[in-house]
Predict the structure.
Amino acid sequence: MSQSEIAANYGTVFENAQGSKKTYISKKVNLKFIPDKVTFSQYTTTLIKSPDYLFKFWNSVFLVVPIVFMQLAIAALAAYSFMRYRGKFKSFLFFFYVILMLMPYQVTLVPNYLVSDWLGILNTRWAIILPGGFAPFSVFLLTKFMRRIPGSLIEAAKLDGAGEWQIFTKVCLPQCRSALYSIAILVFIDYWNMVEQPIILLPDASKQPLSVFLSTINAGEVGLAFAIATIYMIPSLLLFLHGEDALVEGITNAGSVKG
């Protein structure tokens, strides 16, 4: 739809949502889904005329991709340790991980801000990447999955002369392939849509991801925001469609050996 057509059909809805005082819409709203005239001006503005939106898109990529890989690497090593070596200290540490996982972002934002300021990384990508890379969710999920790997499989590898690193890389990681893929999808989608962390830890608007812009649209940018949101959801949608089977298997699979 053109900007004028969007304003005519949806302008009342978005104007009513602006400001601190929100009221019910008193007049009839005509919500049209098929435009009278098809135009790609919003996409032209987003992709060609205003490169700031593409810069923000790449800001999102440079923030989220390192977080995903860091979480996968740290979760794989930590989960293997929790699975292989049991004890009171490890049980307490795993319980501590669960407590951290239950805390919302709003609770941990202030400590993250203070630590980032103390380390001198405030207003840099590391202020987002480091807390995200050490998030406990992936450790918890992968530990629960690894603990379902049959012990006989590990004992057989030890009898064949495999060391800990070989057991980890040749036995455990192949068994957890679907779990790792499902974790990557969930972590990517979670941090791809983050808003609170960049607003607090990245005061410089030029370093913030595109998700922050989408959370601050106004009535005059509705058409542009729709176009940007459509482009912005493509990576998450493609990742989900490509790994849908692995996502379901990683969450529901018991980690047993077939055959």
